[in-house]
Task: structure prediction
Amino acid sequence: MKKKITILGIETSCDETAVSIIQENTGGNPLILSNIVSSQVNVHKEYGGVVPELAARAHVEKIDLIAKKAIEESKIKIQDIDAIAATAGPGLVVCLSVGLNFGKTIAQSLKKPFIAINHLEGHALSPKLNSKINYPYLLLLISGGHSQFLSVEGLGKYKRLGTTIDDAVGEAFDKTAKLLGIEFPGGPMIEKFAQLGDENYYSLPKPILNRGGCNLSFAGLKTAVLKISKTIKSDQEKYNLASSFQKTIEDILCKKSEVAFKEFRKNKKNKKNIFVIAGGVASNKNIRKKLINLSLKENFDPIFPPINLCSDNAAMIAMVGLEKYKKGINNKLDFPVKPRWPLDEKAAFLKGAGVKL
Ligand code: KG4
Ligand code: ZN
Result:
């Protein structure tokens, strides 16, 4: 019997230490043999954000153990791994270095190919772990550090259609949470608070909603939330603010997705297209619901990763590794850490572009 390709993935770009082993599965989605994620939430919560040095130290302390666990759980022999895929960027240099060097060391000692992975490409391909998706597809990537619409034309081929000109959506959730006294990362708790409040209680701004194509902006929203948060006197008002904030984000994402649909359809012959929504914020149930309804109305097939694969994990890194391995793509062991590594290298840097849009 032909041996099935088996890939070990490593992820340490921010505050999750993760190792996963996946295996090719003829005719179906790859099998996730193990997917271990060790979160550092407790390390960073008192600081209200990720502290790079503390994160790097925690990665160093944990990575061996997590890798051992992932190999044990997968029930494969280490020699049966065909390639090692590790995140090389974008992210925090001190954190990326830990997983990248660990991956290179394993690759060298096992004499297997080493594959450097772009973390954002991991999110982009994450739904391929459980859904059949053909290129091209429209991608909305919404995480703690990035908010972008991309046309995914093929493996490694990305055209950015729109991006945030200031904060990322996840960042907006986390900052709102902090103002409401919720510990980092606050996104999931804002979602819970939102269910208890009145979404029409506060009227919040939707920056660049009707201009700037499908580019996004959340800085003005954050300022409005800051002002209101100073007037809050009861828990109910807190819930109302969370609910109004959640509704505003949903409205912005829906309106901008409509613009992105139009952009994506240009030069595409397919009647029905695929819309993939990935990244930590894609685990928000109401955002999922709203974007599903909109997609179906607009003749797009909405696809999300399962909730546990929306936030950072190494199975998605192994997924990109598997696709690259099948195409014979690998990297030398001197591949550098890339703290800034856009998916569309040709797209202009837009942060702070507000006035020009
Ligand atoms: O993709 P991810 O795990 O890490 C990055 O690559 O950034 O995304 C983390 C972000 C955080 O900002 C977190 O608050 C947000 O995703 N997030 C959520 C939810 N779950 C995680 N935001 C809104 N609703 C959620 N349920
Ligand atoms: Zn991520």
Notes: The beta strands are 6-11, 16-23, 31-39, 83-89, 114-118, 137-142, 147-154, 157-163, 273-278, 300-303.
